[in-house]
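Here is one chain, start to finish.
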Amino acid sequence: MAMLLQYNSDTAGIKLIIDKQRITIGRGANNDISIDDDLVSKEHAVLEVMLSTTDEGKLEYYLQDLDSTNHTYVNDEPISLFKLRNGDIIRIGINNFKFVDEFNGDLEETAKLYKTWIPGVFYTKGKKKK
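Its structure:
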């Protein structure tokens, strides 16, 4: 499962699960992630999930700036299009998000959940060694 973890001053804030193929980010209320910050454009950035063209069964996450006035930053560098990796820090306006990909984009891991005897608790099985 991949997510954006919003934080301020190294304290964790809101967990935003990436559960759609396309997530819009901006100040406007019609965005999937709406940020109340005057430094954020109405339509600031978009995060897209795609199947890898090189690694079968892997997901890749791309962040694209939508020609925003104040830019989108990943690891303190302005970006126009960027392939996210686990641990990348995204800055939009004065807001910081950490990109967390617990399975490093492995579609097979994220697709197989196993139910336990405890209601509402699931687990994934470890990968088999090749």
